[in-house]
Amino acid sequence: METFKKLTGRDKLPYEEKHVQRQRGTDFTSDALVMVTGNGDIKASDTSSGVLRRRLKVKFNRIVPDAEKTQYGVGGIGAVLEAEMPGIVNWALSIGTETALGMLRNPGKRMQALAEETARNNDPVLEWLTTSCVQCKPDEETPIGRLAGSSTASIPAIGLYPNFVDYCEGAGIHKIPSVATFTHNILDHCNRHGIHAEHKKVVARSSALRQKRIIVGVRLRTSDDEAADSDDACRGFFGDAL
Q1: Distance from CA of residue 13 to its chain's centroid?
Q2: Residue 236 per-residue DSSP state
Q3: Is the pTM of the predicted complex or chain greater than 0.85?
Q4: What is d(CA 61, CA 74) in angstroms, rounded to the nearest whole number?
Q5: What does the alpha-carbon distance between residue 99 and residue 222 come to, in Å, rounded to a whole number?
Q6: Measured distance CA(177)–CA(125) in Å, rounded
Q7: Which of 32, 54, 110, 204 has the fewest CB atoms found within 10 Å of its own CB?
Q8: Any residues with CB less than 8 A from the CB of 10 and at least 6 apart, and which?
């Protein structure tokens, strides 16, 4: 994953030629556009925005019915698409580098929605944040909380992290991110959407713990939040309809 991020982030990569001693200063920067294909969402172990902002998802979900395939004759639909390739390539070359880069850097709303869908499918923290939390006043704070004991099956959902663990268990998610990853991803996703959120450590006077961790600007959703939605549609953390 680290090599992939360097490849798509214009970082220096080592150049290696087989059977030739590598010399100093032979690193290079890749200008390639990497394409990854699969039959479903491509999941990554790194769920940070460093990966999300590099991804452009193109969804091919149209299935050609058997009845339609018969009209394409010899060679089938593959031959039809092959005949169209010169025109597609000529169009791509004609739009120019700046226009092509503009399309990649500023994808339309449909592409942005697909990217967000992929991010939510890949990161349980983002899915939980979208459906279980709301933005709050800049001075409002919510304890992150921590798990008590080795078993999480009967822990009450008090605080953000215990609530998240409870959500994961209900959703059948077995690989639950650590508190550190959980906190980092919340702040990362908020920053990506221009939402102010802050992680703080405060002294807990009436607690066995000397310090407690809180997040400012994020709190758990309540039934009152759902009742307050103005258009009869339940809104997610980032303002989109759930």
Answers
A1: 25
A2: -
A3: no
A4: 24
A5: 46
A6: 8
A7: 32
A8: 29, 30, 31
**Sign of CA pseudo-dihedral 123, 157, 188, 176:** negative
The CB density around residue 51, as the number of other CB atoms within 10 Å, is: 19
Q: Give the whole-angstrom CA distance, residue 137 versus residue 196.
A: 10
For the record, the structure tokens of 160 come out as: 């953000």
The alpha carbon dihedral of 178, 179, 182, 188 has a sign of negative
Structure tokens at 42: 């491509």
Q: Which residues pair with 74 in a beta bridge?
A: none
pLDDT tens, position by position, for the chain (242 residues)? 778 888 877 788 887 777 877 777 678 888 888 888 888 777 777 777 777 777 888 888 888 888 887 787 777 888 888 889 999 999 989 998 899 888 888 888 888 888 888 888 888 999 999 999 998 877 788 999 876 654 444 444 478 999 999 999 999 998 898 999 999 999 999 998 888 899 988 766 655 445 578 899 999 988 877 766 555 455 678 876 55
Helix residue spans in 70-212 (DSSP H): 76-94, 97-105, 109-122, 124-132, 160-171, 179-192
**What tokens appear for 78 in the block?**
């593959």
